Each structure stands twice: as structure tokens, then as C-alpha cells.
Amino acid sequence: MDKFTNLTGVAAPMPLVNVDTDMIIPKQFLKTIKRSGLGANLFDEMRYDREGNEIADFVLNQPAYRSAEILVAGDNFGCGSSREHAPWALLDFGIRCVIAPSFADIFFNNCFKNGILPIALPQEQVDILMKDAEKGANARISVDLEAQTITSSDGQVFTFDIDPFKKHCLLNGLDDIGLTMERVDDIGAFEARQTAARPWL
Amino acid sequence: MTAPKTLYDKIWDAHLVHEAEDGTCLLYIDRHLVHEVTSPQAFEGLRMAGRSVRAPEKTIAVPDHNVPTDPDRLSGIKDEQSRIQVELLRTNAHDFGIELYDVDDVRQGIVHIIGPEQGWTQPGMTIVCGDSHTATHGAFGALAHGIGTSEVEHVLATQTLIQKKSKNMLVKVEGELPPGVTAKDITMTVIGRTGTAGGTGHVIEYAGSAIRALSMEGRMTVCNMAIEGGARAGLIAPDEKTFEYVKGRPHAPKGGEWEMALEYWKTLHSDEGAHYDKVIEIDAADIAPVVTWGTSPEDVLPITATVPAPEDFTGGKVEAARRSLDYMGLTPGQKLSDIEIDTVFIGSCTNGRIEDLREVARIVEGRKVKDGIRAMIVPGSGLVRLQAEQEGIAQKLIDAGFDWRMAGCSMCLGMNPDQLAPGERCASTSNRNFEGRQGYKGRTHLVSPAMAAAAAVTGRLTDVRDLM
Ligand code: SF4
């Protein structure tokens, strides 16, 4: 997993609530057996018409946002299925940070496993950043994970909360499985206790 | 005395391998269910790191999302990518020593149907699967939730999951359900009240006399959609019905172990005075047969209502409602029961069990699917299909004009050839009405099996009570 430390980039505004995982990456793209290559189909049904032509007014098709690295969105972003293809598609497109008032639980967790930083902020602050994002390519937003701050294009600074363990893993690009493997003795001991107390498991 | 605990607290505590100072926990996983769509990259990860599956005997695999449901599917899957995923699952299960319920096995079916059916799902367990509707298994008093592919790999390698504890939420439904109102109406009504983010950060325990009165199958329907309410998991305390359901199933505990298990399972309920961070109370008598009008599962209204207007909402929901109505091709003020449909889909892990099919058969008995309506029934498993055939239900449904399919997820998400065409409108017993969920530009109205049966007969969304 790539580290996430700082990011300054174009933010694409997506003022929709309940953006679900079927919108982020429709099911026909879940047939892949790889993690890469999904960026071309990010938001596929909103981004292209049936013939595969770009729909001009969709935000990521607009010249200003074609290389967006941040997404600012409405409440309950990423709701729906557990498909990790959603963060894989965002990442493959180049989006490393999503800012919204709230996120669906599984999507939120999946982001961290892929070096994407999801930031939940109060609605009023998201509204300010949404306005900022609407200004286009010159309005670049900065995110500093170490300091836990977001700076808007006109210099307003917002702080955000993040779970310390998740922050540590993102900053250092750490792989969860490697970390858990260090606890293999604890896992073994748990299994021994459980087998004694509840042998049917 | 220790502080009173909720059911969730009890299961959580019993599976804690390690807790760090910041509250990050390592939780032991008792059962891991694997399907073909969210696992290929996880097994690839194991191979690349030279890791094995820690507890293959606690893992089962089944292809369900991609499999065709036409009766001649054993001749091979035509879609190449689907075929590759299903074949890869077979290879991975074989290479890593995992039990597989393959396409030609009568026990094959939707992962959340076959777990309970085979007795893999038991009270007090932690159960995960790379699928959000894992919440279904919570009906047994098991802590069950969906995970992403990286977590699938983590569980395969370590049989644990890194987790933070969620909050406790109680949804209490007291009283008796009116006639024509089912478990599906309960769970959809809850989401209509709390919204799709209402349960975010929480595990929901469903309780109250209306929940206790439900069969195990009804309880699975309720817990199945906990995820649509934003919750990490849904839970129902196990009782005699639960124990009766589990008893004698292929993977249920046997002999002395059954007695031990039963003794433990009887302790699995929330203690008197246990703390909940959020409580929702609903009177069962207030619940009506419901349908969704929009493209979010929270867009729920009683069938007697009319299509709302965007201005009926506030905040971001105004724009969302406008977009939904446009997508769904509906006009504010239109009666929901006037909406004509093209298709009926009965199936999915929400409503693909034998009782659901019996309910449909009861409504359509002596009636016919309306001319021009495509009506399809996809049993949740090969065993459900077999049972329906043995009970004579299948024949009744076929006689009424339903298309009788093989088991799988099918049109719940349309990864196989069962899809809606653009603009096609469907009354569906599944759990998601997102844009494009059942097919590009397809229009989904979520309903109970009874309501789907009524819609099949009349060709429009219909109050099932009018047919009773
Ligand atoms: S039936 Fe639908 S919701 Fe259930 S597991 Fe299959 S695709 Fe998911």
C-alpha cells in the first residue's frame, strides 16, 4: 500500500447524498480478478452514455476536474455493497482523498486498506469545501494527514479526526496482515482457550 | 457484579484476541464464507506473500453472484469473465483446502442462504463474508458482517479481523403485525424511519414481541437489510425457534457438544438494564405493506401513499429525490398503486427461502401472472428449489405463469444474464433499488414476496390486502 502523507490537488464537487457503490463502480466491472485498471470505469453509468461516449456535464468529464485527486461529496458516501472495487476504482482514477459529512462503514474501512483517506467533516464545513471545489482547477485543496488539517484554496483551515491506528498505517503504508501476524501467538492461545470451552466451534 | 451487557457486547467480548490501548481490537472469526466475486484478489494476495489459510475448516466457498440461473447452466457459463471467476474459486478452494458447494451441487445457492441451511451459522459466532448482506446471519444471534477484499485476505491468513467496537442500537417492534404485513415490511419501514445512514457506526439489535413472533426465515429477512440502514450488523437474540432451526443440520453440533452449545446459547441475550446508544421503537400495528419509490432503500412508503415531491424533503435529499424521480420515471402525486410494472423478481438472500415461495404460491393460487409481465422466481439455493418442487409449490408457480429458475443471486444485482433492460420496471423482493442495480437504467421497486406476487397478478404495484 502507498503511504499517504500530504496531498494538494484539484477537488471535484459531487453534491449528491447516498452515492452508492453501484454508482462508483457498476457490477459488470466486478468480474475482474485484478485490482488495477478500474479507473476507466469509475462512475461508469454517470460518466458515459450507452455507446461509451463521455457525458459532457458529468463532473469528472469536465476539463477542470479530469485530474482531480480529491472528491467532495454528500452524506453517506459509499453506501451499499462491500465491493473493494469501489476504492480500487477511485485510486486507479487518481483520487486519494474523499471528503463527506459521513461514510458507509465498509467503504470507509476499505479506503484505508488502499491508501485512500476518507475524511468526515460537519456538513457546514463540507459545504464550504464544496463551494471551493466548484471554483475549478485553480482552487486546489490541501490535506495534511500528520497535522490532521484541510486547507481550502483561500486559506481556511479545518481540522479532522482520525483513528490513531488507521492514521499510523496510512502514514507508513503498513500492511495489516503483516501487523496481525506479529500476534500469531495470541491467536493460537485464543484458539486453544476457545476449543477447550466451546469445542463445537 | 459486572455491568449489564447487550448481546453484541457478549459476543464481542467472547472473541477478543487482543485490545490495544487506543481501542483497536483483534477479533477472532469463527466462520468465513467466500464467494467468487470478492475473493480472487484475496487469494492472489496470499499466493504472492506465500501465506496459507489459517483455518480452512472454518471457511466455506460457493459461487453465487455470477452463476446463470437457466436450467442448462451445467453445460458451461457462456460469459467468459464470469466463467473465469467461478473456475478460479474452484481452483482456490481446492488449493487452499476449503469446502466448496459447486455449481453442480444441489446445496449450491446464495451464500447467506446456504450458511444457515447447512448449519454453519450458529448463535454466538462471529461470521464474516466479502458481502455486505452477511448481516443476514445475525438472525441467529451471531455477530455477522460484510468485509472488503483486503479483509477477506486478512481473515484467510489470520482468522481474525482488526476492528473497533461499534455502538449499540436497539430497534424494538412491539405488538402484532396486521394481516398482509411481513418481515420485509418491518425491515423496510425501519429504514424508511431511520434513513440509510441511521444505523451508521452501530450494531442493531432487533427485539420486541413482533420480532420474537417471526419465524427464523422472517428474522433473516429483517437482519439482511440492517446494512441498508447503515448498521454494521443486525442481531436477534436466539431462542427456542433458533435452536430448533439449527438442530440436526449437517454442520450443527452433535451429541454432547449439542448440549454444551445449547447451554451457552441460552446465555446469549441482552441483560436487563443493558445500555443502548440509540433506541427506536415501532408499533407493529402501524406498519403497512410498503414499497420503495426512489433509488435509495430509505425511499419507503406504504402502498396506499402517493409519489412524493422533491420539495417534501430538506437538504441534499431534495436534489437526490429529484434525480430519483427522474430516473424512476415517476410524477409527484401519482398513486403508488397506479404504477404499472413490466417485471417481477422473486428471490435474493432477503427473500429467496422456502417460506417466501410458499407465500407467493398462496397469493397466486387460482390466479395467473398478468399477460405481458415477465415474472421470475429464483430460489435461494438448490435445496430450496428441491423442497419447493417436493411440496408442489413449484408446479403451482409454473402453472400461474412464473419462470422457475436455478439458484443464485440473479437479478438481485444482475451480474449474470438476468437483468432489466433500460426503462424496464420491476417489483423485486431483493434489497437494493440503486440506479442500475438490476440492469442499466432498470427501475426497481422493493417489496415483500406477498406484494411481488400481487404485482405479478395485477401488473401494477398492488396492495396485497386487496387480494386477500
Ligand atoms: S442475493 Fe443479492 S444481496 Fe444477496 S448476496 Fe446475492 S447479490 Fe448480494
Q: What keyword list fits this structure?
A:
heterodimer; A: alpha/beta; Aconitase, domain 4; 7-stranded mixed β-sheet; 8 helices; B: 468 residues; 16 helices; 16% strand; globular; binds iron/sulfur cluster
What does this structure look like?
Chain A is an alpha/beta fold and 201 residues long. Chain A is built from 8 helices and 7 strands. Chain A has a 7-stranded mixed β-sheet with strand order 4-3-2-1-5-6-7. The longest helix of chain A has 14 residues, at 184-197. Chain A is globular and about 60 Å long. Chain B is α/β, with parallel strands linked by helices and 468 residues long. In chain B, the strands form 5 sheets. Chain B has a 5-stranded parallel β-sheet with strand order 5-4-3-6-7. Chain B is globular and about 55 Å long. The mean pLDDT of chain B is 96. Bound molecules: iron/sulfur cluster.
Counting copies of identical and different chains, the oligomeric state is: heterodimer
Inertia-based shape of chain A: globular
Strand order of the largest sheet of chain A: 4-3-2-1-5-6-7
CATH second-level architecture of chain A: Alpha-Beta Barrel
Instruction: Please identify the structural class of chain B as seen in this structure.
Output: alpha/beta
Largest interface: chains, residues each: A-B, 57 and 76 residues
> Beta-strand level of the residues of chain B, as a percent range?
15-25%
What is the C-level CATH assignment of chain A?
Answer: Alpha Beta
Short description:
The complex is a heterodimer of chains A (201) and B (468). By secondary structure, chain A is α/β, with parallel strands linked by helices. In chain A, 32% of the residues lie in helices and 16% in strands.
